[in-house]
Amino acid sequence: MRPNDISYRVIGAAMAVHTALGPGLLESAYEKALCREFENRKLQSRRQVRIPVEYEDLRIADAFTIDFIVEELVIVEIKSVERVPAVHRTQLLSYVKLTKLPLGLILNFKVAHMRDGMTSLDSAQPAHSPLRPLFPSVPLTRRLAVREINTEAPHVPEFRVPRLEPPLGGERTDLGERARQRFVDEP
Predict the structure, then answer these.
(1) Do residues 133 and 53 share a domain?
(2) CA dist 92 to 16, 31, 70, 76, 119, Å?
(3) 104/39 same-domain check
(4) So what's the pLDDT on residue 45?
(5) SS3 letters for the chain?
(6) What pLDDT does residue 173 have?
(7) How many CA atoms lie within 13 A of 183 on its CB side?
(8) Which domain holds residue 184?
(9) In degrees, to the nearest 5, what angle opens at C-alpha 19 toward C-alphas 9 and 139?
């Protein structure tokens, strides 16, 4: 199976878990539920995988822990935060580089719609390029266009008080003047 096929199935599993549990639980709850969903979908996965790092002649055992490695091709990191900070994206980039796996996913479950909580990184992506959301709500070109359109103050039509026809034999007055008169005349 290719990494993109696996990521498609992982995303489907994440959406099923998010639909069932909703946003706002702890990461550990989503992790256990996602593990069960991977089993149901016959996806081979390893959970809480400890990875050593080598620096010169020093081997650092258990230098970092990956939430999931699926089908030995895709790294999956689970988050339950308002917004995924840059440090988590950098962490995923490090995991992909150190493991030499082709694809990494961040799944943030603390969102209203799971499609807004997914970010991917592939090993072919240059290190200086930003991580991209899998399902951006609005394409970048439309976001830029919206910003350009909204730079001017909106046009608000002038509001005029309608003139009322006076009762037979009366003078013409506007509605505002009548209201003022009524307010002044009443005790």
Answers:
(1) yes
(2) 23, 17, 15, 9, 10
(3) yes
(4) 93
(5) CCHHHHHHHHHHHHHHHHHHHCCCCCHHHHHHHHHHHHHHCCCCEEEEEEEEEEECCEEEEEEEEEEEEECCCEEEEEECCCCCCHHHHHHHHHHHHHHCCCEEEEEECCCCCHHHHEEEEECCCCCCCCCEECCCCCCHHHHHHHHHHCCCCCCCCCCCCCEECCCCCCCCEEHHHHHHHHHHHCC
(6) 53
(7) 6
(8) 160-187
(9) 70
Contact 70, 103 (CB under 8 A): no
The pLDDT value recorded for residue 153 is 47
Token couple for 34:
């996602």
Residues 97, 177 within the same domain? no
As for how many domains the chain has, the answer is: 2
CA 32 to chain CA centroid, Å, is 21
Domain match, 169 and 93 both: no
* Residue spans of the chain under pLDDT 50: 127-131, 136-154
The whole-number pLDDT of residue 141 equals 39
Q: Is residue 73 part of a domain?
A: yes
User: In this structure, are residues 121 and 109 in contact, taking their beta carbons and an 8 Å threshold?
Assistant: no
Residue 11 lies inside a defined structural domain of this protein: yes
